[in-house]
Structure formats: C-alpha cells, structure tokens
C-alpha cells in the first residue's frame, strides 16, 4: 500500500499521528514529522535507491534504465534542486 | 508525444553517446562523399552552393571545420550554462543534426529534380521565367518545402541535443544558443571559408 505524504484535501504535507505494534496492538499517538526520505514521491525514493544500488554511478543507472547519461544526470540535477529547496 | 516520435526528434534522450557518435561519424563521412561526388560546397554553415572544382580533401576540410566550429561554440556556451556539460554530448548533437541536411543534398541529386533546377537556373539567366512549364514550378515548390522540412528537422535535433546535454531550461539559454549559431555562420563565411578556398 502506498504511504500518502500529502493531504488529499489541502495538499499540505502530512504528519504521523499514530504508530502501532503489529504483534500486541500497542499504539503510540503523537504528532511526528515524516522522515525526509518518506517526504519524497515514490519515483524519487526509487531513484535514490537505484542510485545507491548502482554504487552512485549515473552511467550504470542510465544503462539499466535504457536512457542516455545526460538524461539521467538531468533527472539527478532536478532532484538535487528539489531536495535543496525542501531542506532550505 | 508517443515514445517513437520522441526518439525521432530527440534521440539524445535515449541512446548512449557511443551509438550516437558512430551514427554521427558515419553521417559525416557520407556527407563528405556526397558533397565531393555532387560537386557541392558548404559556403556557409547552413548554406550550400555548387562548385565545379571540389576536391575530396576540400570536402573533408569543409565538413570537419563546419562541425567543429558549431561544436566548439555550443560546447563553450554549454559549459558556461552548466559546467557539467560534456563535450561529447554537444559534438554528437552537432554531428547528428547534419544528417537531415545531408539527406536534403541527396534529394537534390535525383535526376528529375536536378533537371528541373537546371531548367529554372537557365530561365533565370535568360530572363524568361514565364516560359517555365507548370510541372517544373511544382517540382521546385515541393522541393523547397522538403528542404525547409529537412532544415527545421535539423534545427530541432540540434536544439534537443543541446537541451539534453546542457539541461537548458531558461529562455535566455535558447537566445544564446541562437546567437552562437549566428556567430558560427558569420565566423565561417567571413573568416574560415575564404581561408579554405586558398587550399
């Protein structure tokens, strides 16, 4: 199941309000911010994971994705820009 | 736009640099042979004229100088916009974009088109354009439109190749791109082509 990260009604970033133990059903309630990685879209999370699994080689990633090196590097640049904006 | 059409207009997004370089170099070699065989000269980066005494060495020099000039200017601009731009990506775009232009020259060598063009040239020289048959005018109109389509396709390829290589996104990047092409044309026509003629 896909974790929603934005509010479906006002599109603001969602926080975690409850966590539950799968075994004993103990629940912890609060207002926790999502970890940074989970604030990214599913495609962006996959991109970061692929980059990690390719040992940080954009060339290798582009080969696996069947696209050219500059296209993959441009995707990377767009993501870096987005993450910089999110963290600033 | 479907994936196939995207590849036609922007092969640089998908194909690795090695494949593009091979296609571009083959295209360049074929264009050299075509210019030499058809006795055509690049008197501008984007202008071709007939020249009776074109040598193979001359055709090679013109093709290489045209490609390198555009490649060097666009690489310099690309590096200024985005320091991570690779020269190979710009050179590939420069090489590949000349393929439609070469196809245009090839089409002009078809006997019935050549005959129609010769007929028009003779009529212009003799100041008797009104005597040209309708079929000749139709051929020249269709050929002109075809050449325009080849030229537009070549520019689209170069723009897309540049955009992919540089990650150009701002309007100013495209203005500078156009300025670089105009500068290439001026440098080639004013400085390089007269020099090449002396060889």
UniProtKB/TrEMBL annotation, chain A:
Protein name: DUF2089 family protein
Pfam families associated with the record: DUF2089 (PF09862), Zn_ribbon_DUF2089 (PF22747)
Annotated ranges, domain DUF2089: 7-35, 40-84
TM region(s), chain numbering: none
Alphabetized InterPro entries for the sequence: DUF2089, DUF2089_Zn_ribbon
Species of provenance: Niabella drilacis (strain DSM 25811 / CCM 8410 / CCUG 62505 / LMG 26954 / E90)
Automatic annotation (TrEMBL), chain B:
Any one Gene Ontology cellular component term annotated for this protein: membrane
Keywords: Membrane, Transmembrane, Transmembrane helix
Name used for this protein in its record: Yip1 domain-containing protein
Pfam families per the UniProt record, alphabetical: Yip1
Membrane-topology annotation of the record: Multi-pass membrane protein
Residue span, Yip1 domain: 7-183
Annotated compartments: Membrane
């Amino acid at each position: 199941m896909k974790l929603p990260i934005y509010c479906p009604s006002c599109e603001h970033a969602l926080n975690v309000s409850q966590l539950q133990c799968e075994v004993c059903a103990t629940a912890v309630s609060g207002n926790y911010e999502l970890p940074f990685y989970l604030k990214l879209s599913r495609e962006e999370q996959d991109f970061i994971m692929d980059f990690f699994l390719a040992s940080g080689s954009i060339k290798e990633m582009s080969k696996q994705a069947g696209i050219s090196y500059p296209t993959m590097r441009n995707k990377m640049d767009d993501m870096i820009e987005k993450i910089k904006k999110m963290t600033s | 736009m479907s994936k196939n059409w995207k590849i036609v207009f922007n092969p640089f997004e998908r194909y690795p640099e090695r494949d593009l370089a091979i296609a571009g170099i083959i295209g360049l070699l074929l264009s050299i042979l075509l210019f030499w065989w058809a006795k055509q000269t690049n008197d501008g980066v984007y202008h071709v004229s007939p020249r009776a005494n074109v040598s193979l060495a001359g055709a090679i020099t013109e093709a290489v100088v045209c490609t390198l000039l555009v490649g060097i200017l666009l690489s310099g601009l690309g590096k200024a916009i985005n320091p991570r731009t690779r020269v190979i990506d710009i050179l590939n775009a420069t090489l590949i974009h000349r393929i439609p232009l070469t196809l245009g020259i090839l089409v002009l060598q078809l006997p019935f088109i050549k005959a129609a063009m010769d007929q028009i040239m003779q009529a212009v020289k003799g100041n008797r354009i009104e005597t040209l048959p309708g079929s000749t005018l139709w051929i020249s109109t269709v050929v002109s439109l075809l050449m325009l389509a080849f030229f537009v396709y070549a520019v689209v390829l170069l723009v897309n190749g540049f955009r992919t290589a540089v990650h150009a996104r701002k309007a100013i990047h495209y203005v500078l791109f156009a300025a670089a092409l105009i500068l290439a044309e001026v440098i080639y026509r004013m400085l390089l082509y007269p020099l090449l003629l002396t060889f």
